[in-house]
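Per your request, structure below.
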């Protein structure tokens, strides 16, 4: 699955590399980035990261004609601590421009994409994103992941490192990650089990921020993950498919 996503990013990376060789680096975003970590911790445990993704590889189109601007306002009004923004186009129908379209409410934005080249991190730093997703197993080794983490931190991006198994967690720790996102999806079968998060949270260490991702759709699940020690829960599909995403988010945050 990740090999497929990696291939889909090659044209973007080649374009960034061409621009770099010609002396064109993306300019760092100069306006203030709201703190991803502070916003999460203000509502932890169990803060909700609300995701905007028009489509997914497992379900196809989740919501026709979804407007990023409308969703940003809706998520901000209903208690989201942060907003995860899909920017990958081929499988998720996202776009990097969504980061600019969704910045006005002032909720921290997490750029979610398949990022494994330093120039992709530099491109993220030229956007209003406050955080960037780095998938541990898309990196060659700990040095590769550490390079991406260090580049992200320089302009003030929070590097969120996603793990699927023990080897991923070991790699993340070796690279110096302090924000760990546990993905509950099995990449081979695409099946989801919260047992993944239930098991991994036992290894949380002091000074780390942990996020549970995939498979949460009910307030009772949010409460369980919070009680186990997760600082935040990332929720996407159930919001995108909800008849009223704002009401669904309010239910998940406990505001309703």
């Amino acid at each position: 699955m990740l090999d497929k996503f990696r291939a889909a990013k090659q044209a973007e990376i080649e374009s960034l590399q061409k621009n770099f060789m010609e002396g064109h680096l993306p300019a760092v975003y100069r306006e203030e980035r709201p703190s991803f970590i502070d916003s999460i911790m203000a509502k932890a445990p169990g803060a909700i990261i609300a995701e905007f993704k028009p489509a997914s590889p497992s379900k196809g189109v989740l919501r026709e004609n979804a407007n990023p601007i409308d969703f940003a306002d809706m998520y901000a009004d209903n208690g989201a601590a942060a907003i995860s923004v899909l920017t990958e186009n081929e499988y998720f129908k996202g776009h990097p421009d969504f980061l600019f379209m969704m910045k006005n409410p002032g909720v921290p934005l997490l750029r979610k994409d398949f990022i494994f080249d330093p120039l992709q991190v530099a491109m993220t730093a030229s956007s209003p994103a406050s955080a960037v997703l780095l998938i541990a197993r898309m990196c060659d080794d700990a040095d590769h992941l550490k390079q991406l983490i260090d580049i992200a931190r320089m302009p003030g991006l929070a590097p969120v490192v996603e793990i699927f198994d023990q080897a991923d967690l070991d790699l993340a720790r070796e690279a110096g990650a302090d924000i760990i996102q546990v993905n509950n999806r099995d990449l081979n079968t695409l099946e989801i089990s919260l047992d993944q998060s239930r098991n991994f949270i036992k290894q949380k260490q002091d000074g780390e921020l942990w996020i549970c991702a995939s498979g949460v759709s009910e307030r009772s699940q949010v409460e369980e993950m919070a009680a186990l020690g997760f600082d935040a829960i990332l929720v996407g599909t159930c919001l995108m498919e909800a008849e009223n995403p704002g009401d669904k988010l309010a239910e998940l945050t406990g505001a309703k």
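Residues 2-22+41-253 form a domain with the TIM Barrel fold (CATH 3.20.20.70).

Regards,
D.
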